[in-house]
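User: Structure please.
Assistant: Input sequence and predicted structure:
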Amino acid sequence: MSDVVNSKPFKFFGGVVLAGVGIVTGQPWLIYAGASMWASGVAEGLREWNASPTAAEREQGRMVNVLSNEASMPVVYGRTKLGVQIFDVRLHATNPNFLYVVAGIALGSEDGSGIEDVDEIYFDERLAISNPDFESEPSTTGVQSAFSGKLSYGLHRGADAQAVDAELDSVFSQYDADTVGRGVAYLVLKLTYDPDVYPTGIPNITAVVKGQRVWDPRGTPAWTYSDSPALCILDYLTSKRYGAGVLYSERDGGSVSEIDQQSFIDAANYHDDVITMGPGTGTRFTVNGRLDTGKSIATNLAELLSSCRSELVYEGGKFRLSTPQVVTAETFELNADNIIGEVEYWRGGTEEVPNRVICHFIDDVNEWLPQEVAWPEANQANGFLTADNDFENVLEIALPYTVGHYRAQQIGM
């Protein structure tokens, strides 16, 4: 699959052509669609020229719609907000006031089957649909009053066995029983032309999504929705559709497994512990974010591991997940009586050892905007800084799958 950047020429081309046709034919949806796509194509192009985007710019980019049926589709773990990927835009054959938009949301889990849920759908950051129905097209359930009579939809979970969208199948000959979007969670929107409702033409579409159903080997093993980092890492590591495809016979059958399953069970139990977090309590570690399948597997694994301060170790032909844990302090003391031979050690200087950490995370209670938190905070005493004679050395950590101020801060400690 091509990288998202390859969609940019399609977006410019689509925008120019649609606008031109609209001017010639006088069909209002085409004029609006062309202008809207062209403008977002320019914005995306400008963003991509930024060689060193900030965390905020990276997250804002995830909210922008991509117009392509070739760009890599994301995977959603936990709950997050993201922009859709527009596959197709078509006018009704006999009524040009009806515009159909087919938009991909994410890849569905291989055997889960599909994503767990879509909580909300936004048009240009206006809530358009709340708690939409799956597989009941054409539906108006959850459509907000501002769009009443101007919007219906079909929503598909991304199951391997899902059927063609009934509305598309009834209106367009290009869609038939074989056009099912196997393994892709997607949305079909029917927009009724009204410049007061859609002042910018096709809106920028975003969705709050509860993503993958993953395999939980604990207790009675089953596919279930979870934001446990250990289970999501296990899913990505073993998925043959969008991950590393590592052999996992305990789930998939066969005689060979490259997974140390007990290590993932132990890590999941630790990650799921409810602990004191700020003024309240919360799950120790969670994964909530959008995985870019256009990135390398190694990069995606490193970003997932950042959510739980863990390491993935390959030894004895198996992958083992290791999370450092607080244990009882060791009382054994190294001294001249038990040290044999010479001992060499090196303690990094002030430039190698940070005395302040800044973590960049996603704030799920503040419009899913990127935020940052420091440890120690600016108004707190910093003994590490004092020990370094007030020479500040800051380490910045990106936590793309971490939501919440206190959870991000505890990862940075």
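Confidence is low (pLDDT under 50) at residues 1-26, 35-52.
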